[in-house]
Design a protein that fits this description.
Layout lengths: L12 H17 L4 H18 L11 H8 L4 H6 L1 H15 L7 H59 L13
Helix pairs in contact: 1-2, 2-3, 2-5
Amino acid sequence: MNAPAAAPSGPRDGAALAQLVGEALTRAQGHDTEDAKEIRAITDAMVRLLIGTPLHSDGKLTVVSLATEAGLRRNKLTHKHTGLKDLFYALVKDRAAVPDALPDSARARAAKQQQDLARVRAERDDLRGQAQLLARILHVLEIENSKLKETITALEQQVAAQSAVPDLTRRRRRP
């Protein structure tokens, strides 16, 4: 008796699942139909993207990259093969989740990194608020400084007009 193959572990799990789904759908559609060829192209592209070896795209885990990798237009995924698109999104989302099979030290490290990230984001938001407050204060001070300069100029003109020194050379004494 053959023992069932052990499930692959790691980042290739999603690729193996995509490949299995693609083979099942291709068999269901028939091997030589246009839909079967599209399904095969999409699932092969999923496998390449999920294992990180793209041939025709930028390697991002998006539907646009998947369509480019499969050599199809994007609307084939968004309108015709929506089940494959949903499968791709689920596999990508599953890759981003912290696996339960992590050892306790790795899980603790991941939790600490999440806490650190939340703390850094809170600090960033606080600093952003402080920077905006300082910009408003600076603007108010610039306006007040401008008004003070205008006031000083006006006062200097008034003082100059009031304390005009008389020209004594024009006055002559009469005998």
